[in-house]
């Protein structure tokens, strides 16, 4: 098992230093080590196009803001912090479940687009992905909030990686239900909180942690099948509109808030830790939590 945090400090600097017409190719070179993250996509994937679609930093705009943001990442030593956090988290997880499969993991950190209103607004300047085994990506703008919780964000995505690694929970895009992602977000936050306290909460879900109307609405959709429905039910209406889905009447981060509530009820009822519960089926967690609620 090896954790490789790509040196995108040098990579992004090379992109920004290149002539404008060459930047796309330099960006593709920087992203080449994470090409496997898109292995389930149909056809050939243009890494530069995926960068843009994933709120990545602009290549020809924000000529002052992006270099300044890169300096903030360097000053905050985020690459070393991510590496240390991942190592610590794997040690904690393996102590709780020594036989789990820990794959080699490549970590990509890139700056986001400060002019993307959805990214900087509802998403609060952060987007993470740990769904493809062997890869973790973090796209952020270095706000005070995001810089303070770099470790928690990385550990959250690592938890997804380990839950769905071979030998763990099987994810079938056609048959998976909303409840699986809601629980997985709650587990990932609970694991990050196990290591880093309240900094482990994903910020977009925090405003709704005590909202019983949001809880009831998300619970009503837990059995909806097919991951095409997850944007609306887990991320909320703003995300649904951004990605061309039908809104269902939920605020941004609703599924994260409900996932935290369900997982916390399960953990408190069973006396287990988030690390202990890595591979517990989501329906088991939901059943215990809903029994507690009722």
UniProtKB/TrEMBL annotation:
From what superkingdom does this record's organism come?
Answer: Bacteria
Give all residue intervals belonging to the DUF2268 domain.
99-286
Q: What is this protein called?
A: DUF2268 domain-containing protein
């Amino acid at each position: 098992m090896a954790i490789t945090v790509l040196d995108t400090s040098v990579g992004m600097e090379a992109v920004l230093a290149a002539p404008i017409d060459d930047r796309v190719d330099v960006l593709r070179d920087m992203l080449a080590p994470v090409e496997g993250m898109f292995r389930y996509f149909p056809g050939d994937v243009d890494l530069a196009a995926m960068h843009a679609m994933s709120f990545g930093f602009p290549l020809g705009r924000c000529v002052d803001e992006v270099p300044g943001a890169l300096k903030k990442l360097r000053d905050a030593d985020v690459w070393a912090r991510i590496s240390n956090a991942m190592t610590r988290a794997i040690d904690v997880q393996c102590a709780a479940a020594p036989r789990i499969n820990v794959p080699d993991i490549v970590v990509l950190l890139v700056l986001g687009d400060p002019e993307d209103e959805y990214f900087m607004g509802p998403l609060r300047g952060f987007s993470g992905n740990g769904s493809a085994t062997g890869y973790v990506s973090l796209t952020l703008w270095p706000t005070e909030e995001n810089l303070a919780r770099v470790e928690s964000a990385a550990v959250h995505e690592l938890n997804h990686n380990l839950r769905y690694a071979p030998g763990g929970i099987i994810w079938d895009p056609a048959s998976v239900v909303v409840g699986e992602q809601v629980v997985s977000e709650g587990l990932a936050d609970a694991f990050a909180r196990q290591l880093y306290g309240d900094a482990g909460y994903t910020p977009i879900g925090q405003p709704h942690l005590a909202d019983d109307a949001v809880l009831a609405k998300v619970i009503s959709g837990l059995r909806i099948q097919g991951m095409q429905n997850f944007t609306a039910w887990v991320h909320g209406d703003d995300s649904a509109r951004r990605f061309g889905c039908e809104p269902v009447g939920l605020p941004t981060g609703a599924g994260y808030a409900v996932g935290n509530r369900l997982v916390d009820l399960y953990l408190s009822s069973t006396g287990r830790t988030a690390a202990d519960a890595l591979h517990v089926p989501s329906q088991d967690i939901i059943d215990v939590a809903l029994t507690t609620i009722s």
